[in-house]
Every structure is written in C-alpha cells, then in structure tokens.
Amino acid sequence: MPETDPLHVEFVSWDDDPPVGGQGVYVRELRHALTDRGIRVTSRSGRGPFAMSYPRITGRRHLDMSIALNVSPRRLLDANPDVIQISGGPGGLQLLRRLPKPTVYVAYHTHRQSAGWKQVRRVFDRLEHRSYAISDTVAAISPSTADAVVAMGIPSAKVVVIPPGLRMAEPPPDADTAREENRILFVGRLESEKRPLDAVAAMNLIGQRVPGSRGVIVGTGSLGRRVQDAVAATSGRVECLGALSDEDVVREYFRAQIVIMPSAFEGMGMVALEAMACGAVVIGYDVEGLRDTIGSRGRLVPSGDVEALARVAKELLQDPKQLVEVAEFAREEVRRERSWPRCAEQFEELYRQLLR
Q1: I need a surface site. Which of 84, 179, 280, 341 has the fewest CB within 10 A?
Q2: Which of 130, 161, 128, 158 is nearest to 143 (CA)?
Q3: What value, to the nearest 5°, has the Cα angle with vertex 268 and ends 181 and 158?
Q4: Residues 6+ apart with CB under 8 A from 99
C-alpha cells in the first residue's frame, strides 16, 4: 500500500465507549487520534455503539464474544479492513484462528500477571499465547507487559512497546481549582484486582492519624456491598460516591491531594496517569504496571502493605512542601511524555510496516 493511501483499521474489543475500564478508554482515545490522522477506523465491540450480537454462554461477556468470533472469524472481514487490531489479555479477546489480514494484538497485561485462581490463569494463559502466536505483532502498552509476553514464549521480534496516550484534562469550568487539604481519593472498579478494601482500610488509618482527612471511593463493581460495609465502619472518615461521569472524575482528581492505587496488578495504570496529569500525588503498590507508570513520579510501597500506604500518605500530607514538589514533578513528566497523537503516529508506522 502506498504511503499516501488511506488506511482502514478494524478495532475489535469487548470494552468500548462508554468505557468500563482501561481497555475501553484506550480504544476510544486511540480511535479518535487515528481518525484525526485521516485513518478510517471501524469497530466491533461487545458493548456500546459498536456492539455485535453474540450468544451468552459462559456468563463472562468477553469470553462469550471470543467464542462467537472463533466460530465465525470472517465477521471481522466484512468491512474489508487493511489491518485488524484486537484487544487481548484479561478482559480482552482470544482469537485462535489466523486471519488473512495483518493482525495486531494490544497487550495491556497478561493472564500470567493477573490475580485469580492459578488453574484458571493457566488455561487462559494457553489461549492468550495462541492468540499472540498467530498475530503479526503484539503491541504492549508497557515494558513490563512486553517482558511478560516474551516470557510466554512469544518471540521478542514480534513485540513492540507503544505507551498509551493521555487526554490532558483541565479543571471543569465550574470547579473550584483549590485542592482540598488532606483529601485522599481512590478511583477504579470495585473488583478484587483493584483491592478497593485495601483503599478503605488505608484511608481509615490515615483518618485516625491525620485530623480532618477525608477518604473518597469512586467506582462500582462486584465488591460494592463489601466496600459500602467497610466504609460504614470508618465513622465518617471515608465516603463512597459510586459511579461518576468522566467530568466528575476529573473534578475529583483536581480536588484530591493524594490518589491511592492498591492494585494487585495493572496494565496501563490509566488512573495513575490521569491523576498525576491533574496534579495529584499517586501512592501505589509496587506491582507490574504501576512500577512502570508511577516510578519516581510518585510513591510505591510493598504490595498488600496497607500500613505502608497510610504511613507514606501521612508523611506527605504533613509535609506540604514535599507534597507540592512531587505533584509538580509528576504533572510535568506525564504531560511531556504522554500524547494520544504520538501513540497514533506510532501505530500508523506499525500498520504501514506490516502492509509493506
């Protein structure tokens, strides 16, 4: 294909707009950035405006969509795309049959990196390996994810690292831009891998040690009732706001001084990036994904150490100068390094290389 010819890419992902998690955010923002470059992007997803129909068999919707696509993979060729791009990994899709078009798999994180039952991980690990093995390229979103893909036995020559961009948010017009002193925030799905109960526990400890501190939980999920019960036991030191609009989440980022991320693992760590870009300090567990995303821009503590989360948060809240220095450094670094237009440029280069 000549360099001047318009490209047509088919996105295939269970999550889409409005996003449930990081994969949906990634798909939405990259689609916009590629379209701005003049690339035609069609989409096939499990939910949202581009949702395809598929039978409900297992109760896990991304797995049901994977089954449907493996039964009829040629559905992905209906729009005659030049390149097919598939969201893989936990929460993503496993396509086990090679397609007659160049195929790119986006690896956010792997089943081997994820939490959960070892036996289940082992089964999905084999399916994931097959998907990556028959693809032309695996685009990992971080170095740690790339290492995990290579550790699965995928040749390193097939794996590239293309970091996600970030939509640089500004305070909503009606927002009070002054940060609320001692406000601590958690944003994420209320699921076991995000460890929201650790967030509540850490916020409760901070509230006991830093007078006037306020913990805020934003999100919904299967652990919602347990989180609500834990919040109720904090004597008002923590509140749960449930699901919020994108604009209201941004407002919370600009209100908080600290965002805590006690995740068991992360692929992108989009919450960390968004929070740092909005000027909040991020404290997270030292796990794959967050290690890449936060690094020296924030603070990392041993995984599962709620006491360390609370201790580091207290130290920062009681040292306003250090808190501001860490926040400003992180904000400048993230805003300089992360760009969806740059991410789209790298993907276009990859697509054209595959077509050549």
Answers
A1: 341
A2: 161
A3: 160
A4: 73, 76, 77, 84
User: In whole angstroms, how far apart are CA 220 and each of 191, 242, 250?
Assistant: 8, 6, 17
Could you count the other beta carbons within 10 Å of the beta carbon of residue 61? Answer: 16
55-106: pLDDT as tens digits: 999 988 999 999 999 999 999 999 999 999 999 988 899 999 999 999 999 9
Q: Give the domains, in start order, of the chain with CATH numbers.
A: 8-165+339-355 (3.40.50.2000), 183-337 (3.40.50.2000)
Taking CB atoms within 8 Å and a gap of at least 24, the contacts of 234-241 are 234/200, 234/203, 234/204, 234/207, 237/203, 237/204, 237/206, 237/207, 237/208, 237/213, 238/200, 238/203, 238/204, 238/207, 238/214, 239/214, 239/215, 240/216, 241/216, 241/217
What residue has token string 């789209």? 344
**Burial (CB count within 10 angstroms: exposed 0-12, middle 13-18, buried 19+), residue 160:** middle
Within 10 angstroms of residue 303's Cβ, the number of other Cβ atoms is 18
Confidence label for 177 from pLDDT (cuts 50, 70 and 90): low
